[in-house]
Write a structure and sequence with these properties.
3-stranded antiparallel beta sheet
Length: 98
């Protein structure tokens, strides 16, 4: 992705066994990704949903500080949405209680 091949940590989406396979967490951009290689034999519940966060709290020297490039979606070299003046900029979805 845009993290200059930063090291990732295993993470689960659910604590229930046989729900989903292991995913990877990038501490630089703070995103969860599906690994490139098939890890169908490793269940995500073995690591848990909080493994990377506890590891980074225990070893704060592993935390990466600094800027990273944000992904800007493009089609044929043109950005899909401008940052300024986009119809999606600044709008928040409000949920109404029924």
């Amino acid at each position: 992705m845009m993290c200059e091949r930063h090291k990732v940590l295993p993470i689960a989406v659910s604590d229930e066994v046989k729900t989903s396979r292991v995913k990877v967490y990038c501490p630089k951009c703070k995103e969860v990704y599906v690994p490139k290689y098939k890890t169908s034999d490793v269940d995500g519940a073995y690591f848990g949903v909080s493994f990377p966060h506890i590891l980074l709290q225990t070893y704060p020297d592993l935390v990466v500080y600094g800027e990273y490039k944000k992904y800007a979606p493009k089609v044929f070299g043109f950005k899909l949405f401008k940052e300024v003046g986009s119809k999606f900029e600044g709008k928040e979805v409000e949920l109404e209680d029924n």
